[in-house]
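User: I'm writing a short report section on ligand binding and want a predicted complex to refer to. Could you take this sequence and malonyl-coenzyme A and write out the structure as tokens? A short remark afterwards would be nice.
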Amino acid sequence: MNTWQRHLPKGLEASKVDLLAGETLPRIWVDQWRQHPQRDVIYDPKQGWVKSETLLTQSEVVAKRLAHAGVGPGDRVLLSASTSVELVTAHVASLRLGAVVIPTNGAYRSEEVAHVVSDARPTAAIVEQPEWQEWIRATDPKVVVTSPLVELEEGPSVSLDEAGTDSPALIGYTSGTTGRPKGAVLTHGNLLSSVRGLEIAWRWTSDDILILALPLFHMHGLGVGLHGSLTVGAQVVLLSEFDVDEVLNSINKFQATMFFGVPTMYGRLLDSENVSQLGQLRLCVSGSAPLSAEVHQKIYDATGQQILERYGMTETAMLVSNPYQGERRPNSVGFPLPGVEVRLEGSPAEIQVKGPNVFKGYWERPDENRASFDDGWFCTGDLGVVDSDGYLSISGRAKELIISGGFNVYPKEVEDVVSQHEAVQECAVVGVPDAQWGEAVVAFVVADREIDSNELKNFVGERLAHYKRPQQTHRVDSLPRNALGKVQKHRLIEEPRT
Ligand code: MLC
Ligand code: AMP
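Assistant: Sure. The structure tokens for the complex follow:
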């Protein structure tokens, strides 16, 4: 047994558990719903509790409509809407059809949407915002565009739940050095094995009730919160957005047992006089960005709750977690989850991973795929250290990435937009430590004239999602470069400015 997994309960060591039992998520969900048709599964903010039998029949209806509109196994379906049971139903229906879901952040602007559409070539798009319908049709008039209610004509019965473990299930767009987001293709097996690993590690059972205020278009809310709850047969209370009072009131109202959040959420919860409500939960998980030791301690002092920090990625789903039983160490992400192998390679040491949860590659990006794997190990771009007790800490990043409030911002993508500003000659975008967001996006510009922070914020906000806007803009005479002409971003951050 891998010593890194010694915190698993006896008999549940990874080697003894089939992480792919049940083969695909939708098959497992449908089996459970058939067995317990009257069970309340999802609490929807507008409709209240929704039963298994409703999810079963509604997902079949939506699947028939999508199939009639031309969606078949392997076809892509772009999905973007605020949290609701309709969104969940559309997601489940697409997966049951064997289609590949592209969960997409509703904050994206037209160019970001157009990029995803032209790159992934979806057959259908289920989107909430009216302007998205225009943006998608303008990019590709062939795409069938509909609202989250999927009010399309219903066709005859179709084969459902036939996708296999290796069939693609999800494409998660994530950016990189090129600045143009690329799609990480995750199979049913990738998603299932990750959830099974969490089930074991976090003792997740059908008795659990999760308060879910994370958006359902990223791995944390979708691949962990929603998929995990549905797979273990637990209940999930969906909140349409993150609101401190609503989260804390919901804990009591629903007798909840779990809450998952990003560090910014825990920081905001701490400001409430009712934060002690968190103490009633059996498990609070933090991930997607580093949780400061200070917030970890303050939450413990105020609630008695020791937050369990874990580490994951779009490309790999969940990788490493602090133990459920045992010390949950601040500034550490803990031990590899069942089935996950981790190695530290090079100097400074990069975290590289293998396992049934790790994706096979990016959508139609052979060059990036070659560069992302080292002898079968996926190179995360995160730097790590392991202490003498085997706890892994993320010590930095080899990749250029800013994480603001749990959302990823790739400097290159923002730089490409800032450079389009008529007064900007050159620019560099960096992340600086920020009490609320963890890191804040800051732009340094060489410009013909003074550019005020709001001007650049608005300029970028018209072209990119709101969280990618630079919070501050600094005008500089020149950008510091090394002998090879590469911008030395660390010097921009370190040098004092007026
Ligand atoms: C909102 N704003 C942000 C922001 N979120 N700015 C920077 N970074 C962010 N993340 C801005 C808004 O544009 C607005 O600007 C102002 O903040 C106030 O907005 P708000 O209404 O208070 O924000 P709110 O909607 O409450 O959003 C905060 C948040 C949200 C923390 C709830 O950012 C969020 O849901 N984060 C979670 C992201 C997530 O799910 N990550 C998982 C990735 S998966 P203005 O100028 O208009 O005032 C992954 C893998 C893994 O990473 O391991 O999990
Ligand atoms: P994403 O591409 O949105 O899936 O973001 C994945 C990245 O988030 C990882 O590569 C890490 O850099 C970061 N991340 C996730 N969880 C943690 C954590 N607990 N601590 C620090 N960074 C994290």
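A remark for your report: The first strand starts at residue 40 and ends at 44. The chain has a mean pLDDT of 95.
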